[in-house]
Amino acid sequence: MSKTSIIENEKHHDMQLEDGASVLGAKDVNIKLVNPLRQFGRDELIERARAFAERCERPDLQDTFAKGALIAAHPGLFESEEMLNAEDKEWIRRETTHKWSQPKTLYWMVICCSLAAAVQGMDQSAINGANLFFPSQFGIPQGRGQPERNEWIHGMVNAMPYFSCSLIANWFTDPLNRYLGRRGTIFLTCGIAFITCIWSALTDSWWHLMLARFFLGFGIGPKSATVPVYAAECTPAAIRGGLVMQWQMWTAFGIMMGYVADLAFYSVPDQSGIVGLNWRLMLGSAAIPPIFVMIQVFFCPESPRWYMSKGRFADAFKSMQRLRNADLLAARDLFLAHEILEAEHEVSSMMKRNKLVELIAVPRNRKGMMGSGLVMFMQQFCGINVIAYYSSSIFADAGATQMESLGASLGWGACNFLFALPAIWTIDVFGRRTLLCIGFPAMSLALWFTGASFNIPEGSTARIACVALGTYLHCIFYSPSEGPVPFTYSAESFPLYVRDLGMSWAVSVCWFFNGVLSLTWPPLQRAFTPQGAFYYYAAWNLFGWTMVYFFLPETKGLTLEELDAVFSVKNRTHMKYQFRQISYYMQKYVFGHKELQKEPLYLHEKLSMEERMAAGTFAPAAAGH
């Protein structure tokens, strides 16, 4: 394919606007923020880089910053860049050939972020074992002959942190990060988690426990939005996806550790007049992981981007030096981040509408809201957190003893963690849509099997085994699909100029419906029976599969420019295209026409198709396509 043809296609992409709805011109904004260095000529770019070295109080590295600026502007042309020597080029090559060979400080930061995610998970699951004990102690027992009001109160106690996150706490993320930085926000939220977990263990009534868990939301919400951002801002692009994935994986590890604590403290007897010491220790044990995060977080480097937002450029460079293998790489990444910040400030001053209006009014942004909202909503309504919070009660209802229920819950938590590991590889190999399109129907079948297992007569070992098997299979299918995809997908769904606001929306959707699940599971079981309650969430998985197949764009391996075009395709166009692809899938995978190629939909696919056609390797999927 000719260079002229590619340039013409890129010009067409840059001009393309769905409905032309933005006052400023959303495409122009996004293009400017993708790589603002490309607007400068070579000499001007070098001069800006040298001036930035002065601002970083490193005039001795002016040439290094100039080299870094040239690499950042045109990363694919470094081999022919005359300013670079052999050592410089080798450092850049190593980013591809030895991408996991990074400074120890970076991996220390990774450990800190992983522990913060584990705090999150343990905060979520420690309540599981306590659910077996505190309702009766606090006068809200459930079961046959008990008031329906008790189930709603029990559900609200479980759900309170997540409603607190979604409706209030999560919206403190921006000011906390602005004034305290990433590390300060993580330290504060872990401190809140520590205090509220101890507080929960000391409560003397259901409303007192509910109040403590309300404030626990302030230790969960801002942390869940800050840690992935902190990791993304500190990590090299080559391994950024793998690190963002760690949030979900180590949250799953924390959930598993919550079950370990539930099992460890189950048999602790009441002592010294303390009633319910076992469940109090279960809740209080979640205060241990935050201590380790708080001890080490300030030994990790602060986000260089945050330092620059405060005008502390020398500190920003020192921080970036600790996170990169060479001064050249640190200078390159810091200068590019600085220029993007400058472009963001310029865009903000030019905008005639605020970012909230832009998020809603621009069709491309609304498509990002829809996609991220869908995957976050379905992360809850696939039914996973019903089992995470109530598995001990579910296994007990199936006929298991309390100790057996806690043991089965631990096994479920281990599956949740272990089967998240493959997603580090599969999410970028198979893509987000593919994982979801496989995961949703599989999760639906697992939940149908779980619900049907309750039809086995009570007292049967087979009933307990089948319920456990169904929930385990559901978790195994969830962990590499709908588990890791939502946070990764949401981070990719929004253009830079509204990304923080868009992520706040996505995380709030996640936590709100997390609370809805926690609140409604006890009364749902009463109304639908355990069988019907599991069938209910099985049906939601089929809904999720349908919505993902027809409306969710793929984001795997795409640049920001390509994502801009992907999210500009109308839902109607996307749905019609996916209907046509049913014929393609049937012909290729059922009837064995392996030579067929998919019809292109997006600009980057059309460019690839033209290249394949020029090489004579493209076969249309069907006539008229």
Helix-strand blueprint:
Blueprint: H1 3-15, H2 26-34, H3 42-55, H4 62-73, H5 86-97, H6 104-125, H7 127-130, H8 134-137, H9 148-167, H10 173-201, H11 206-234, H12 240-265, H13 277-285, H14 288-296, H15 304-309, H16 313-323, H17 327-350, H18 355-361, H19 363-381, H20 384-397, H21 402-418, H22 423-429, H23 432-453, H24 461-478, H25 485-492, H26 499-551, H27 560-566, H28 571-590, H29 603-615
Helix pairs in contact: 2-17, 3-4, 4-17, 6-11, 6-12, 6-14, 9-11, 9-26, 10-11, 10-13, 10-14, 11-12, 12-13, 12-21, 12-22, 16-17, 18-19, 19-25, 19-26, 20-21, 20-24, 20-26, 21-24, 23-24, 23-26
Protein name: Major facilitator superfamily (MFS) profile domain-containing protein
Family: Belongs to the major facilitator superfamily. Sugar transporter (TC 2.A.1.1) family.
Catalytic activity: myo-inositol(out) + H(+)(out) = myo-inositol(in) + H(+)(in)
Features:
29 helices, single chain, Growth Hormone, Chain: A, 0% strand, mainly alpha, 625 residues, disordered C terminus, 73% helix
